Amino acid sequence: NAGVMQNPRHLVRRRGQEARLRCSPMKGHSHVYWYRQLPEEGLKFMVYLQKENIIDESGMPKERFSAEFPKEGPSILRIQQVVRGDSAAYFCASSPQGLEVYEQYFGPGTRLTVT
Amino acid sequence: DQQVKQNSPSLSVQEGRISILNCDYTNSMFDYFLWYKKYPAEGPTFLISISSIKDKNEDGRFTVFLNKSAKHLSLHIVPSQPGDSAVYFCALTSGTYKYIFGTGTRLKVLA
């Protein structure tokens, strides 16, 4: 399966712990996007990355959230000191090109639950 | 401030009939429009798209209509099949990678 991979699929963290979400884009895709879906809401753009570069992080909360896409390995979305309000589904998408409009292909998501 | 609205949270349709899903937006800067389908425990899957220079795009059983003056987008599925039961999201963009998603409509196709 050459689709977008995300792991873990489910993650439970206690308040104050760190959450690390991983995303491997589709083969041949070098552009990665992270979205968050809160209950009863649509997906909200968080950040757009290319290899080793953050292109647009305008949707990321200013504190506790960070993202990276290293030269080797998956993209990582990191949430430090999680709070209950961080409980959501986090989706990663990838595309073969960026900046302009291309269909984005989504992974299955990571459902984060903060207890 | 919600720029994109899908006012029907759910819709039930009999198998073989037409399903019509609607999406309204407020920002006239949007110029590319997409529909995604989402099954439980899966990510959204791209379905069909349309650019602002068109008012209709068809792909098999799926047709998307765009009414720019009314700022209204709709997805028609005909004939509807039980496998179409899913949550449908419209996604809009003003020519960039930054999609603005609607809240989704849960479609249930009854056999």
Describe this structure in words.
The complex is a heterodimer of chains A (115) and B (111). Chain A has 115 residues and is mainly β. Helices cover 0% and strands 49% of the residues of chain A. Chain A is built from no helices and eleven strands. Chain A has strands spanning 5-7, 10-13, 19-24, 31-37, 43-50, 53-56, 65-68, 75-79, 88-95, 105-106, 110-114. In chain A, the strands form two sheets. In chain A, strands 2, 4, 5, 6, 9, 10 and 11 form a seven-stranded mixed beta sheet that branches. In chain A, strand 5 and strand 6 form a beta hairpin. The model of chain A has no long low-confidence stretch (mean pLDDT 92). With 111 residues, chain B is mostly beta strands. In chain B, a hairpin with a 6-residue loop joins strand 4 (32-38) and strand 5 (45-51). Chain B starts with a strand and ends with a strand. The mean pLDDT of chain B is 93. At the A-B interface, strand 4, strand 5, strand 9 and strand 10 of A face strand 4, strand 5, strand 9 and strand 10 of B.
